[in-house]
Amino acid sequence: MRVRRWGLSLFVIALLASAVGVLAVFGPGYAYLPRASKVLNPEDFASAPAYDLWGRRVSAEEAPNLDARLLSPSSGAVRIDEETLRLGREVFYQETYGNEVFLTDILGLLDGPLPIWQYAAAILKLRGQATTNLRVAIARDATVGGRQFREGELIDTGLDVPTGVLLPLGLKVKFGDFRLKAGLTCAACHSTVDAATGKVIHGAPNRDLNTGLLIALASNSAAYFPHASRDALNAALKASGPTVVGGDGQPASIPNAEVLEDGVDRVFLHWPPGFFDSTIDLVANPTDTPDSFTRDAHPYGFSGFASVGPFRGLAAVSNNMHAQNADSLSQASASLALFDLDSEAYLAAILQRAARAKYRYDPASGRPPSAFFAGVDPTPGAPGVNEVVPPPTWPRRTYVAPDGVTVGSPGRYFFEQNNAVAAWQNTLSPPPLARPNPRAEEGAAVFERAGCRACHDGPAYTNHRVIPVDEIGTEPTRAAAFKRTEAVFAPPVLYTFDTPIPVPKDAKAMPVPVSGFPEDRFNGWAHGPSRGGYKVPALVGLALSAPYLHDGGVAVGADPRVVGVRATRGSRVTVDPANSLRALLDRALREQVIDANVSDPALAAMHIRGEGHAFWVDLEAGYTVEEQQALIDLLLSLRHAPTR
Questions:
Q1: pTM assigned to the model
Q2: What are φ and ψ of residue 380, in 5° steps?
Q3: Does residue 637 belong to any structural domain of this protein?
Q4: Mean pLDDT of the chain
Q5: Which of 9, 34, 72, 84 could serve as a FRET partner for 493 with CA atoms 20 to 30 Å apart?
Q6: Is residue 414 part of a domain?
Q7: If you ran DSSP here, which 8-state letter would residue 572 be given?
Q8: Residue 126 sits in which domain range?
Q9: Is residue 217 part of a domain?
Q10: 192-197 long-range contacts, Cβ below 8 Å, gap at least 24?
Q11: Number of structural domains found in the chain
Q12: Does a structural domain hold residue 376?
């Protein structure tokens, strides 16, 4: 047994050594980009070339009739051609904007009890077979957030590995500073592997990616505290800890490192697999990962906060995910407004346990955290450590830069990569069902009779509205996630799209049009007296996106007696799309789901309930069991409809 284990270890070491050599030669690193033959739902490039002009699509036939200056990058136009779409695909699968530094060197994603060689060993054991859940063994005993992990215990990471690939989907590895680093791309969350074929499904959510657990197992998960909870931060501030001189010249308390680490770990361990908290409002409310079947599905974001800018706000969503969710340091300038925490104390909280000594701040040094960080910052002149560009409105937040910054790699044009990935996502549709639903036509009649089209109309089955939380009745906390941004808000302005990165001092700026911005979309930001709202979601690809509702709370297994998020996602039981849709439509089954969710203290703490959207198609509403099933069959088969 020892000989075999030692042999495997030597093989893993040899593999890693080979990888280091390859990465040292190729520099930028490696992330898997699937070929068309390895994909179940290839993109549709038929509509290119065209232009996007602040959300208005201009076809190749229309373009000659317009003033050429109107369709130039200096006016905000984005040309959609095969080169743009290829770039978008590459960005989606391979671009990290340098988040390897934050995730590896600061957060310590590979410095906890799941080091990189354990991932390599798990992939080798697949022997080229695909998996939708890479199981990785704990390397050493550890206590995290009060939970005991034992050496050899297998962890369900939820990482997808396509057939014949030696790297998880959406993971990028590179060699730098004499060590292997790992970063994440869009594909880690928003593409998945089909279990039956081992092929990739572009844009389908990774429904069991165990993000919360993986972050909790990082050595410095406290660096991600804005995504945890106010309670975790307050407990760390109340515990005895050092102070620094704050931005106002007064002493500012640094959150106690051990207490903060333990507090955020306890929150992250409560995230169900497939859920992620993309907001930094210090409210623990993760929700299930959305799909990327974005065509005609505006506004974007769970609350519809992204409605402005190129591609009807889709480029703003892509920007927000990378600028905010992959580098907490980028938010230091707004920490007082957003978290009631001085910016110096904020930086210290993130860096005091950094995985790599180079980025580890010692409060005893007496140096201001900002001065320390300036000395090690790999991207001087830009907030945080990722490849970001402060727009003309920095440090204010805007409709097109909700976190204040924009991502962009040196050598590219301003907003080019955000625009390209938005254009590419709009070419995606879910794969057709393997077996057509014979009752889908009957279901269409039920869809009309039940009044579903009042909200779910158009090519993507949405009317593009944001419904106030009081009206829709869904769990309300996510709807108010952006409320505090109002204190640091400004009208949207961007550099022209022909501006190179790095941005020159004489770069031209352009205002972003907000005309035609429906009043109800302001609910997406919960600004003013609004308590916020939720967008009417598109109904494309429902077979791939269960569980349902804005909190992801409507979850039922293949056995309809298995109800609630804990009994499904939390127990490695697949959420059944048909039964979960039945719970969305049937009040008796929904009550069982809600009861199961609210009776679980962990889910209650994460604000996962499954309430709201009380539009019933059940016996009490006058529908037969057969009619209900026909509607479910229709909903599972919906793809983008032709424009009427």
A1: 0.94
A2: -60, 140
A3: no
A4: 92
A5: 84
A6: no
A7: T
A8: 2-30+95-204
A9: no
A10: 192/132, 192/160, 192/544, 193/130, 193/131, 193/132, 193/160, 193/161, 193/162, 193/169, 194/40, 195/130, 195/132, 197/40, 197/130, 197/163
A11: 1
A12: no
